[in-house]
Amino acid sequence: MPTNHADSERQRRPRRVVVVPDGPILIEGPVEVELDDGRRVVSDRFVVALCACRRSGTYPWCDTSHRRRRP
Ligand code: FES
Fold first, then answer.
1. Residue 5 and residue 13: Cα distance in Å, rounded?
2. Residue 50: which domain range?
3. E strand or H helix at 8, and its extent?
4. Given the CA of residue 65, which atom of ligand 1 is nearest to it?
5. Which member of 13, 20, 25, 40 has the greatest number of CB atoms within 10 A?
6. Ligand 1: does its nearest atom lie under 6 Å from the Cβ of 23?
7. How many helices (H) and strands (E) does the chain have?
8. How far is ligand 1, taken at its centre, from the CA of residue 2, in Å?
9. What is the pTM of this model?
10. Is 63 in the pocket of ligand 1 (CB under 6 A)?
11. Are the beta carbons of 29 and 44 closer than 8 angstroms?
């Protein structure tokens, strides 16, 4: 399958991962995540927000629950 210039450029450079303070981990997609129970989930988004706080209702994806104040 032919790739365009942007695709080949993305494959050449390291994948960027950004750790957001008190927030998610942003990863250039697409990604496949293996969970601790062995299940695998896939996201085809351009940037994927992985939950680092474990409070997300859609774990492993961030649903912005990290923004809520704890009592
Ligand atoms: S980091 Fe956003 S919900 Fe956990």
1. 13
2. 5-67
3. helix 5-12
4. 3
5. 25
6. yes
7. 1, 5
8. 37
9. 0.80
10. yes
11. yes
